Amino acid sequence: DQFNVTSYTVTIVAIVTLEAFAGMWINAFIASVICMAWIQKKTLNSNEKILLLLGCSRFWFLCISCLHYFFSTLYPNYLYVHPTFQLITSIQTILNDAQLWVSTCLCVFYCIKIANFRNSFFIYLKVKIDRIVPWLLLGSLLFSLVVGIIVYDVTDKALCKNINLTSQGIFWKASIRSDEHFFSLYLINGFGFATSFMAVTFSALLLLFSLWRHKRNMQTNSMKDLSMDAHIKAMKSILSFLVMYSINFVFLILSLISSFWTQYHVMFFIYVFLYAFAGFHSLVLICTNPKLEKSMLSILSCVNCKVCMK
What we know:
With 310 residues, the chain is mainly alpha-helical. It has one domain (1-287): Rhodopsin 7-helix transmembrane proteins (Rhopdopsin 7-helix transmembrane proteins), CATH 1.20.1070. 85% of the residues lie in helices and 2% in strands. It has 10 helices and 2 strands. A two-stranded antiparallel ribbon has the order 1-2. A hairpin with a 6-residue loop joins strand 1 (163-165) and strand 2 (172-174). Helix 1 packs antiparallel against helix 2 (46-74) and helix 8 (226-256) runs antiparallel to helix 9. The protein is globular and about 70 Å long.
């Protein structure tokens, strides 16, 4: 039984590690391509700024999360050390919130840029969106930093109330129940998740309504083919984003209440999907961005040529 449990644990850690590495490479690719474009052009447009920050935040989120999962599963005694546990938890929260809010900014940006409404406030946003984007990104980072500081403070207080000093007196091992000490964090994180999900849903619905109305106008005016196909593809892309964000929101909420469960495989399933979302959504962004898609295809063609030569 002990061998089976150990083998099962190692298998799970291997799956999570491979999944995290795949997501890290995908997001590192996004960040590197945009950085090279930045060096060449000496400037970035609003879309590239959002994608660069999203790629960087997701890369480091997957990196820290992978290390956290690895040590918490195989070497928990090395993780629950003061102040290592607080620092890793705080950094992981900052990066998770950052990648969540930056991806939300991306959906809002697409909505304002593509949708067409005659509302004066919406027209004002469309004109000023390039100036607003840096402030949205700065606000996302500041909000994530504030939540991370709160997480560190609450975690530190919880650990100080529940520490057991070892015989050597070197480190502190925590023996706490999350549901007893982190209720305030549940409320803060839950509010953040719900707000970002509502923003994504509202942006997607507005954009879908605008594209549907534009599609209907083109049909009425007998305009079709290329423009119509482009709008239909945009509709499919937005719908796929909305479905992914809806599922991701459910798993984010489940991750908050996972401490109430003792079933290890349930928590594993939750974290596997959350890590997969950070990589899969970035892969979809690559496929829907002409510059990123072109760079990816050129790299894949070079790899295929080298493999064929061998």
